[in-house]
């Protein structure tokens, strides 16, 4: 008994010593195995261990489709990386797991979204093959949400009533140098998402989102950060209920319709900062052939409900922007703009699209001063968790953002 106890003690001691030893060895080999996102993306080396490779043609690949790789991930909280080799992938993606997921697009120009070589393509609007309308989510190239219900747009001022007991979805989704292209039509022909992002936290770096209507949807409890990305559209192409921060990106106007932003506010027990914040970005006609046709015609946004909140800060606006800035949205004779409730704003925007007297004449755009902009001036001030606690930004890749790489 006594002896057994002793040997058990010794075993514990010995095992923890061994553990310590292994720990040291593991740390050393991790240090030797230098991980570099850019090298992983350009050469397929120095990837995080366990990186899954996708390609329809390359024999290094573990999966031929991206969804195949996503489906192989364990339903746990482990961090997982998928390297997508250059190519066009015609598929819809659906990320439901809660553990961190990183999608890396193969590229040797990791700081330039115009040179992305991974393109995920799907052609759909909110109609099924008999022409019956279906929820917008079914049109999306990429869906990130824990359940179908949490991703539904729904209708009415409050949208789809997501069951309160729905769990939170992905806590840290990241995509680098991937284009999401909804090729349904070459003009607004109903909602056609490139992205649907709800009940999740995620960052998109050097990505492209291409469609004409409702290109990017950030739904309920969605926190999405975009960095040096391209978002192209015509009608309401940044819309949703959640919180989106678009940093140093390009908004490409492929036509005008509705507004660039169409947000729906929600009542919560805490003060929420739900809305879309477009910062240090450029708003321009998609190309010089379309520019003359849309000159002075594109509105910055319109209120999807009266609690719409959007701010363009330090943005360049080309001559495409409507002199009134934002516009109202009148449905069955009822104007949705509500003074003191709706916030459709600009802060230090500049360029030919900014017409100060036009903004005043339009009567719905708020030009913020420094003090009024202050509560919205950083991602830390707007991204909240489910309980409304601010500063929910751990999932943002600050190394990339700070270094500009
Ligand atoms: C992907 O599609 C684009 C546009 O259709 C085409 O220009 C490009 O060559 C395709 N890339 C590959 C690798 O097939
Ligand atoms: C995404 O996957 C989940 C789990 O399989 C499924 O319930 C949901 O319907 C899918 N979403 C879409 C839009 O297909
Ligand atoms: C310019 O953009 C419009 C809208 O996307 C498109 O229809 C047209 O083909 C583009 N023209 C050129 C020359 O790229
Ligand atoms: C939020 O509450 C206000 C005040 O009660 C109400 O007028 C508004 O319709 C509500 N909005 C939503 C989206 O429920
Ligand atoms: C600016 O707005 C004013 C007031 O609506 C309008 O008269 C003027 O033509 C606009 N200027 C330009 C360059 O569009």
Automatic annotation (TrEMBL):
UniProt keywords, alphabetically: Aspartyl esterase, Hydrolase, Signal
Pfam families found in the cross-reference section: Pectinesterase (PF01095)
Top-level taxonomic group: Eukaryota
GO biological process, one term: cell wall modification
Listed GO MF terms: pectinesterase activity
Domain Pectinesterase catalytic: 171-377
This enzyme's EC code(s): 3.1.1.11
SUPFAM superfamilies: Pectin lyase-like (SSF51126)
Enzyme class at the top of the EC tree: hydrolase
Pathway connected to this protein: Glycan metabolism; pectin degradation; 2-dehydro-3-deoxy-D-gluconate from pectin: step 1/5
Signal sequence, start to end: 1-29
Coiled coil spans: none
Family: Belongs to the pectinesterase family.
Official protein name in the record: pectinesterase
Organism for this UniProt entry: Penicillium salamii
């Amino acid at each position: 008994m006594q002896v057994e106890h002793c040997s058990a003690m010794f075993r514990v001691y010995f095992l923890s010593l061994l553990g310590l030893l292994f720990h040291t060895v593991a740390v050393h080999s991790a240090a030797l195995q230098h991980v570099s996102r850019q090298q992983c993306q350009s050469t397929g080396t120095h990837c995080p261990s366990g990186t899954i490779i996708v390609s329809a043609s390359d024999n290094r690949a573990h999966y031929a489709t991206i969804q195949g790789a996503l489906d192989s991930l364990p339903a746990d909280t482990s961090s997982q990386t998928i390297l997508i080799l250059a190519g066009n992938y015609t598929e819809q993606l659906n990320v439901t797991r809660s553990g961190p997921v990183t999608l890396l697009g193969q590229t040797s120009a990791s700081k330039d979204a115009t040179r992305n070589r991974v393109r995920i393509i799907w052609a759909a609007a909110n109609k099924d093959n008999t022409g019956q309308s279906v929820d917008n989510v079914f049109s999306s190239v990429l869906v990130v949400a824990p359940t179908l219900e949490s991703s539904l747009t729904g209708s009415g001022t409050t949208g789809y009533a997501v069951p309160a007991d729905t769990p939170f979805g992905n806590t840290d989704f990241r995509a680098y140098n991937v284009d999401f292209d909804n090729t349904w039509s070459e003009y607004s022909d109903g909602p056609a998402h490139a992205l649907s992002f709800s009940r999740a936290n995620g960052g998109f770096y050097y990505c492209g989102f291409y469609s004409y209507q409702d290109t990017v949807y950030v739904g309920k409890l969605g926190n999405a950060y975009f960095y040096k990305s391209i978002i192209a559209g015509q009608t309401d192409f940044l819309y949703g209920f959640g919180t989106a921060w678009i940093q140093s990106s390009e908004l490409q106007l492929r036509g005008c319709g509705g507004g660039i932003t169409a947000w729906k506010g929600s009542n919560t027990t805490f003060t929420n900062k739900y809305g879309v914040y477009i910062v240090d970005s450029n708003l321009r006609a998609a190309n010089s052939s379309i520019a003359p046709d849309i000159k002075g015609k594109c509105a910055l946004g319109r209120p999807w409900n009266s609690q719409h909140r959007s701010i363009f800060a330090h943005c360049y606006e080309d001559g495409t922007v409507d002199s009134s800035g934002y516009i109202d949205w009148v449905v069955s004779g009822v104007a949705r703009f509500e003074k003191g409730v709706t916030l459709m704003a600009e802060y230090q925007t500049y360029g030919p699209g900014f017409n100060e007297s036009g903004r005043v004449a339009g009567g719905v755009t708020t030009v913020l001063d420094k003090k009024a902009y202050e509560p919205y001036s950083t991602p830390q001030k707007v991204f909240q968790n489910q309980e409304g606690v601010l500063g929910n930004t751990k999932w943002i890749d600050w190394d990339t953002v700070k270094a500009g790489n």
